[in-house]
Amino acid sequence: MNQRLFIGGTWTEPEGGHYEVVDPATEATVGAAPEATRAQVADACTAAREAFGPWSRTAPEERAAILARAADLIRERLVPYAELAQAETGATTGTARAMQVGVAAARFRRYARVEPAEWPIAPQINEAGPMGKAGVVGALAIRQPVGVIACISSYNNPWANAAGKIAPALAMGNTVVVKPAPQDPLSVYRMAEVLEAAGAPPGVVNVVSGSSVEVGEALVASPDVDMVSFTGSTAVGQRIAEVCGRDMRRQLMELGGKGAALVLDDADVDSAVSGIGTTFSFYSGQICTAPTRVLAQRPVYDRLVERLAAYARRLKVGDPREPDTVVGPVISRAHRDRVESYIELGRKEGAVVVAGGERPPVDRGFYVPPTLLSDCTNDMRVAREEIFGPVVTVTPFDDEEEGIALANDSDYGLIDYVWSADVARAFRVARRLRAGGVGVNTVARNMEAPFGGFKKSGFGRDVGSYALHAYSEVQAIVWPG
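That's the Aldehyde dehydrogenase family protein sequence above. Prediction below.
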């Protein structure tokens, strides 16, 4: 079936035709995605602008009820939605169900909880002066919706990433125009169907897609857009920021990462291996939070490399639909070629390939094996640039100060990690890392903790209540007491 665009509450034929969505595991066609024109993107933005007034004035409890119904519908349809997500992304069955569709349902459920949008501020006593008589001045801070939000989501998790933008934006009274990644847009259209069925009024949610960069460019440049929420590469984020900067529009940017994992000399090496190993297994390394850049103190360096290599070799690479598969494909042929080019670059730079490195013997699909590069230095491109695949580099260091310096010597600063048996030491090191988040002896996330990056990993914070702040403006109202 040819997918249609969702504009102003109407399923609309794309004027730009359709393009194929390819299953990265089998190279079969999953479906036909719509190619929006610039005019249709403009129509979506106009629809969102017209819907903003009524939606922003809707009671928060009514908005929350729609989000709650959406969460229920996603849960009811979890299996077929996960099958589609798997076909589009190549995720394993467990990942597609729990971490993609399951997380999306949880995010809609989270923002179905109404939170206060007003905060009293302590009265201030003003002395008589040029501004008037002496008196007491009261104040109230109120969170107001921003307006029309352009939500541009990433390909690695079309369900969770899009839901993490749409749900808090709608909860705050904004309307959205969603532009999913071209590789896997069909899942986001299912999300639009759910929101329509849950009672979202026409124009509150709009979805436009396309394989051409013109779709995203038209959306970002639209005069009807008040804010852009983007997840993707730093290079694209920089271009979006330039456009938004000209009109002083709000932005929320979750960009690239090159997570440093400091393994100190007193660390539990097996725990570190399990955490770092998620780079291989979780989305096949296509995740910006992955601990891809390991910095190991010399007393544990050899042992860590040996155990990481053994761990990588044990992981089954193959069809993500098979229950024992751990590492599925990367998203496309072009991306597989890119990841492989980095592995070859690592060899040329002097890194040692101690696991992986060779394309698996499969007839179809875009597979890259878990690959471990040892004997790296921090000036190698493989240790500095985001590869976005199942590739881990390991660099030795002598003392704690050197490890911290190496970790901070990066253009990125999204999430770093520290492994140490001494928790006080680990926290001390964590406080000195220039990253938006630090995992201490874990790669787990707390889904109420603020999420975002330092440096070229972006700006702004979302997740939990921080997302409600991200998708709102704060207004102050003052009055004489």
